[in-house]
Amino acid sequence: MVENDERINDLQSRLAFQDDTIQALNDVVVEQQRLLERLQMQVAALARRQAEVSAQFGIEEDEAPPPHY
After folding, report:
1. How many other CB atoms are found less than 10 A from the CB of residue 54?
2. Are the C-beta atoms of residues 37 and 29 closer than 8 Å to each other?
3. In the chain, % of residues over pLDDT 90
4. What does the pLDDT look like over 19-30, one tens digit per residue?
């Protein structure tokens, strides 16, 4: 009986630790997803701005570099 109680306590302790670890990992994944979404929005905004500036100055995106390059 005592051995079973010890095993049960050990398993409960491990389960609690695993639950805490899973929650911590989930929190990190959620934060990374938020960061990824924010970065994607920033990249899209920069791409739009680049296109606007290119259009404003008449710069073609596939323009070949000058011959001295």
Report:
1. 13
2. no
3. 70
4. 999 999 999 999
